[in-house]
Amino acid sequence: MAIDPSEARKVAHLARIAVADDALPALAAELNGILHFMEQLNEVDVDGVEPMTGVEKMRLKRREDVVTDGHQQAAVLANAPDAREGFFAVPKVVE
């Protein structure tokens, strides 16, 4: 599949990119290059290749999932306009 300047204009319009008429042939050539590269990728035999999250085989470091209070109660409450008994104090909304 080849992209000509008229199709490049449509692609630019769909992508909401302003492209001058004299730049459309260059854009079409660049899009054709991208499509050619994608065709090359489709030719690669990937049967039996395991999917990877990165180029190096390594497991992510994991930590124990423990619920804590963050040990920063005083620092957090210092930012509050009104704090009482270790909690944020807010005006009563519902009677």
From TrEMBL:
Signal peptide: none
Keyword Zinc: no
Coiled coil: none
Gene3D superfamilies the UniProt entry points to: Glu-tRNAGln amidotransferase C subunit, N-terminal domain
Superkingdom of origin organism: Bacteria
Transmembrane segments: none
GO biological process terms held by the UniProt record: glutaminyl-tRNAGln biosynthesis via transamidation; regulation of translational fidelity; translation
Keywords: ATP-binding, Ligase, Nucleotide-binding, Protein biosynthesis, Transferase
An MF annotation (GO) of this entry: transferase activity
Tagged with keyword Electron transport: no
Pfam families in the record: GatC
EC top class named in words: ligase
Catalytic activity field: L-aspartyl-tRNA(Asn) + L-glutamine + ATP + H2O = L-asparaginyl-tRNA(Asn) + L-glutamate + ADP + phosphate + 2 H(+); L-glutamyl-tRNA(Gln) + L-glutamine + ATP + H2O = L-glutaminyl-tRNA(Gln) + L-glutamate + ADP + phosphate + H(+)
EC numbers on record: 6.3.5.-
SUBUNIT field: Heterotrimer of A, B and C subunits.
Function (record text): Allows the formation of correctly charged Asn-tRNA(Asn) or Gln-tRNA(Gln) through the transamidation of misacylated Asp-tRNA(Asn) or Glu-tRNA(Gln) in organisms which lack either or both of asparaginyl-tRNA or glutaminyl-tRNA synthetases. The reaction takes place in the presence of glutamine and ATP through an activated phospho-Asp-tRNA(Asn) or phospho-Glu-tRNA(Gln).
Similarity annotation: Belongs to the GatC family.
Protein name: Aspartyl/glutamyl-tRNA(Asn/Gln) amidotransferase subunit C
